[in-house]
Amino acid sequence: MAQSFDIFLASGSPRRRELLTREGVDFSVRTAEVDEYLTFDERRDPEQAAKSLAERKARASVEALLNQDGYTGMAAVIAADTMVVLDGEIYGKPVDEDDAMRMLGELSGRTHQVITGVSVWLMHAPADNPEELSLGFRSFAETSHVRFKDLDEGIIAWYVGTGEPMDKAGAYGIQGLGGDLVADVRGDFDNVVGLPVKRLVADFADVFGLEE
Questions:
Q1: Which residues participate in catalysis according to the annotation?
Q2: For residues 171, 10, 68 and 208, what is the CA-based torsion angle, rounded to 10 degrees?
Q3: What phi, psi does 15 have (nearest 5°)?
Q4: Fewer CB under 10 Å: which end of the chain, C or N?
Q5: 3 state DSSP class of 206
Q6: What is the DSSP letter of 26?
Q7: Can you give the pTM of this predicted structure?
C-alpha cells in the first residue's frame, strides 16, 4: 500500500530517526520548542507524564507546521518522550557530571523502568478551505525493565568521562558504551533506546503505508 500521509517526526534524536528508518518509514523531521516542565502531581505518574510530554511535543510541531510552514495535506506527526524511573522517581538528563555520577550510582545493581510515551497526531489541512482543518491524536506508553550490573566508582567515573551520559535520560545510552553497564533487559529493547518502533508501526501500519 502506498503511503498516503506525510510523516513528520517531532524529535531531533538520531536514535529515533534510525529506528524509524530501519522499519521502512519514510519521514521528515519537524521539531518545535516545548516546555518540558512537570508539576509535582505529574511526576507522581511517570507513564502519564511521558505521554503528556509526547503530546506537548507533537502539538507544538503540528502548530509549527500549520502556522510557520503553511502546511496543507494529510500528515501524521510522531513525538516521543523517554524517561528512566527508579522507585517512582523520574530521572531526566543529568545537569552536570556530578549529577550523572549520582544517577548511575543509584541505578547500580538495581532494576529500573524505562518508559517511552508516544503520541501520534493525524491532521488533514485542506488547501482550498483552511477552516476545515481536522485533528485527532492517540497516545500510548511502553515500559521496559532494565537491570544494571553492580558498578564501582571507577567504572562510573570512566563512563561519565566519555561524555555519553550527558544528553540522555538516566545518564546512560544502552545502544552505546552504556550497554556495558546493563545486566538484563525485560521488554522491548528499542523502547530503551528511545522508541517502541515495532508497536508504533503495528498500530499505525495503515498510516505509514506499510500494510500488505
A1: 81
A2: 170
A3: -70, -40
A4: C
A5: helix
A6: -
A7: 0.93
